[in-house]
Amino acid sequence: MTLRPALLASALSLATPGRADAALGEVWNYVSQYQFGIDYSNSMDYVALSYSTAVSGGIPSSCQALTDDPTKKRCTVGMVGGSSSGWGVFLEKAFKKQGQYYLDWDVSAGARYLSGQIPDNDISKDGLPLRYASFSLAAFVVKPYIQFGVTPEFWPDILVSMGPALQVAVGNVTVNDSPRNIVVGTSSLTGPMSLLNGFFALEIVLKRFGEGAFSFIASHDFSGNGEGSKIHPDEIDGMSDFRGSFKRDVGGLAYGFGLKLVTPWP
Length: 266
Fold this sequence. Notes:
The chain contains three helices and 13 strands, in the order H-H-E-E-E-E-E-E-E-E-H-E-E-E-E-E. The chain is mainly β.
């Protein structure tokens, strides 16, 4: 579900009794623009954990030398944070055609639960000091985006959405024998390229019927600004500067796309 700043402003104005009725009307007018939808897709959440450690023992393929400190290397291990395949429900604002071309903006928000650990076959296989890592995190993600595309009289419509991704995660991260409760903020905000490195979605609309539509969908979002955000505060067994980057991919079995049906209700 997406949420424009105007809706937040209307909600805040409820604190003024004289404007309460008008504000409630604005909120209802906004919410009533949304349609009920059903989708069928596959999703995969992925967390990349990186850390610095001494060069001693060589530099395996999962590590690279640090140019600013030749005595250390930076190593990365990937962990699956969750996956799903099946049906889902959502709310989406009804599409309003603008002509042959389309341009708009909005803000998407959502919550996730991420849980995972290093696969057994990745533990210490290169003689690295990392023996164990796991995480259990509740995350809230915000994705402001622009949407553009072509919407000709003949189908299909093709719509692209892109923008930065920002995430706040709360929970537990354990490295070797050191568990820690953390609050970590990550984002893709690294400059102009944030539009490409953060959130990206492609929708191919096969059929529209009133305010409803049937589409192929695929999306990707990444937060971690290249090197990732601090995810564990300690120095452990010769390792330091633990950072995490978060990625989510959504697709499906229809040529790599998921399926989405927006109904004309309510």
